[in-house]
Specification:
InterPro entries: aa-tRNA-synth_I_CS, Anticodon_Met, Met-tRNA-synth_bsu_C, Met-tRNA_ligase_1, Met-tRNA_synth, Methionyl/Leucyl_tRNA_Synth, MetRS_core, MetRS_Zn
Subcellular location: Cytoplasm
Number of helices: 21
Motif ('HIGH' region): 16-26
Keywords: Aminoacyl-tRNA synthetase, ATP-binding, Cytoplasm, Ligase, Metal-binding, Nucleotide-binding, Protein biosynthesis, RNA-binding, tRNA-binding, Zinc
Helix content: 40-55%
EC number: 6.1.1.10
Structural class: alpha+beta
Radius of gyration: 33 Å
Distance between the termini: 83 Å
């Protein structure tokens, strides 16, 4: 594709939905790559604006408000603040983070719709939509649940089944139910305004399929799948009471569709940031527009929003939409409804000062072309084996040795050896490599190349062993002493230049540690073009006090996070628990054959060489103790059971377990998680009493 020269770049990141916090899937899919790209452009001195804000309209917010007994505004106010604060603390460097409930956005979205309406670009259409007769309101797609016709998930929504991923129409659901009242809705006529996407199909094919073959295969492929079908008119309004009112006559009780409203938020937020100068960022032909999104938003950003912009006229179109796939968590799909996620606001509390560790790991595991997986063990290993052992180790050795031998002053560079030349030759191409990868949105590979620089530096200082050469400082031979001093000075000079390069090259990826490293190097500014230079730090330059750039993460820290996920899993299992089906009916006479009695536990001990078995000595009221072996050792310590009264089956045929004859069975209830609970009594009953 022909390269275009742009004067400026507008970068947008998908508006997070103000119905909950931000999790690592959002970060890996959208916000970390977008921030890397923006920081890179700024380092290059390019004119760029980074635009985002909270998406605050739509059905899920009203559902949450109803459940909590508060207003939708209360919901969005809470989560807007949480999200905005978390992003700021995590270092996502937006130029503006606003919201779709702002006055500016309401005016902008209303004016946009009104122009399409007045220009005849929308069609008015009456269709049948589900109506809740108990709640007296039409139901948006997410207000309707039922059985998916494809996978038969009983909790599918009216627009999508989250289990199999199928896009749905509410009328396709089997046994639909209202999410408000639980009643079965009825179909009723309603009027809405539609954007006739079919009229833009040929233009979209030309613009995307012919004009943007350089887009990521997952983005291009999904667009092609949609465009190979016949696009249909899509409703741009909804029958709801939460949202931006439709600004035309006869639209009482209707609001703008959230997917019409939300992308206009990019424009309104830019207007809020630059009220007198916003148009060049959205209408200037010399402006490059890039949308960072997740794969679930591809159709809206590549088909619906561009069609809206085309219909309106005057706006530029996205030059690229580098959408990522999904990130899983511990081999399971991230789910907000199941709380199966690592939430950013919780991470910032649990792992203070470790923003860059998460940024690094999420970039290293970025789901750029396929779904990927985050595990806490991988998080720990990448921190300990890469950030600490490679990058941090090299930086620490270079700075500490300079402090030790030269009082923290950058020494003079002497004669370069083949070792220096080899290391510097490997460094030469790094700027072009990293730059070429960032320009095509391959952030994972770009970060890998920068980490390779740290590996080169680590290998160089290890091969040169300046601590051994420095032993010559104590020589009585002046020539030997001078030679050693010059050699150590050269090694550390070169090492410090490599460290300074790393501080710049890592800045888009690891901004917090790069800032700390620049502080240690005592340099306040850096430019992308300096990468590859061997004179960033002048001889005689005074360095600041060195400190560790990263710290090792211990097993205890990781286990706390794993335990938190395990608790979440158990809570989900408990919430979804359903009793096993009742077994087939038996005759009362069959039950009477069982002799269930009360027994008093006189003693209990573990069975040797058996992890699951406990040996009980039971007073069964007969005057002779009874031995029973039971497989509950995983759930009880023996001393917990001594002195308790339990129920047991007395007339089972004896059987040998681990050489012990067991005469009966202790009765236990199995919980949803497989744990066993021994049955007990509410009142004291004599041993041997019958149950029936």
């Amino acid at each position: 594709m022909e390269q275009k020269n742009y004067k400026r770049t507008t970068v947008t990141a998908a508006l997070p939905y103000a119905n909950g916090g931000v999790h690592i899937g959002h970060l890996a899919g959208v916000y970390v790559p977008a921030d890397i790209y923006v920081r890179y452009l700024r380092l290059k001195g390019q004119d760029v604006k980074f635009i985002c804000g909270s998406d605050e309209h739509g059905v899920p917010i009203t559902i949450r408000a109803k459940k909590e007994g508060i207003t939708p505004q209360d919901v969005v106010d809470r989560y807007h603040k949480m999200i905005k604060d978390s992003f700021a603390e995590f270092g996502i460097s937006f130029d503006i983070y606003s919201r779709t409930t702002s006055d500016m956005h309401t005016r902008t979205a209303s004016d946009f719709f009104k122009k399409l309406y007045e220009d005849g670009k929308l069609i008015e259409k009456t269709s049948k939509q589900y109506y809740d007769e108990e709640a007296h309101q039409f139901l948006a797609d997410r207000y309707i649940t039922g059985e998916c016709p494809h996978c038969h998930n009983p909790k599918a929504y009216g627009d999508q089944c989250e289990k199999c991923g199928s896009d749905l129409d509410p009328t396709e659901l089997i046994n639909p139910k209202s999410a408000i009242s639980g009643s079965q809705p009825v179909l009723k006529d309603t009027k809405n305004w539609y954007l006739p996407l079919n009229e833009y199909q040929e233009w979209l094919k030309e613009w995307i399929l012919e004009g943007h073959k350089e887009w990521r295969p997952n983005v291009y492929g999904q667009c092609k799948s949609w465009l190979d079908l016949d696009l249909q008119p899509r409703a741009m309004t909804r029958d709801l009471d939460w949202g931006i009112p439709v600004p035309v006559d006869g639209a009482d009780g209707k609001v703008l569709y959230v997917w019409f409203d939300a992308p206009i938020g990019y424009i309104s937020n830019t207007k809020e940031l630059l009220p007198d100068d916003w148009e060049k960022w959205w209408k200037g032909p010399e402006t490059k527009l890039v949308h960072f999104i997740g794969k679930d938003n591809i159709v809206f950003h590549c088909i619906v929003f561009p069609a809206m912009l085309k219909a309106h006229g005057g706006y530029i179109l996205p030059e690229n939409v580098p959408a990522n796939e999904f990130l899983n968590l511990e081999n399971d799909k991230i789910s907000t409804s199941r709380n199966w996620a690592v939430w950013l606001h919780e991470y910032l509390t649990d792992m203070p000062g470790k923003q860059d560790v998460l940024r690094y790991v999420l970039t290293a595991n970025a789901p750029e072309t396929k779904d990927n997986n985050f595990t806490w063990k991988d998080f720990q290993e990448r921190n300990n084996n890469e950030l600490v052992a490679v990058y941090g180790n090299f930086v620490n050795r270079a700075l500490q040795l300079t402090k030790k031998y030269f009082d923290g002053v950058v020494p003079e560079c002497g004669t370069l050896t083949d070792t220096e030349r080899q290391a510097l030759d490997e460094f030469k191409g790094v700027k072009d490599k990293v730059e070429s990868l960032l320009n095509i949105y391959k952030f994972r590979d770009a970060q890998k190349e920068v980490m390779n620089l740290a590996r080169i530096g680590n290998k160089y200082i290890t091969d040169c062993e300046p601590w051994k050469v420095a032993k010559g400082f104590k020589s009585d031979d002046e020539s030997v002493r001078k030679e050693a001093e010059e050699r150590v000075a050269t090694i550390l000079y070169v090492s410090l230049q490599l460290v300074a390069n790393l501080a710049i090259a890592f800045e888009p990826f690891l901004p917090f540690s790069s800032k700390r490293l620049r502080d240690m190097l005592n340099i306040s500014d850096c430019k992308w073009d300096s990468i590859g230079s061997t004179d960033i730090l002048a001889s005689g330059h005074q360095l600041a006090e060195p400190e560790l750039l990263f710290e090792k993460i211990e097993d205890e820290t990781i286990n706390l996070q794993l335990n938190k996920l395990e608790e979440t899993k158990k809570a989900n299992e408990a919430a979804n628990y359903k009793a096993a089906p009742i077994k087939e009916t038996i005759a009362f006479e069959d039950f009477e054959k069982l002799d269930i009695r009360v027994g008093h536990v006189k003693n209990c001990e573990k069975v040797k060489k058996a992890n699951k078995l406990l040996k009980f000595t039971i007073d069964d009221g007969s005057g002779t103790d009874r031995t029973i072996v039971s497989g509950i050792a995983k759930f009880y310590a023996p001393e917990e059971l001594i002195g308790k009264d339990v129920l047991f089956i007395a007339n089972l045929a004896p059987r040998k377990l681990m050489g012990i004859e067991s005469c009966g069975m202790i009765l236990s209830a199995e919980n949803f998680d497989g744990s066993l609970s021994v049955t007990s009594l509410l009142r004291e009953v004599k041993p041997g009493s019958c149950v029936g």
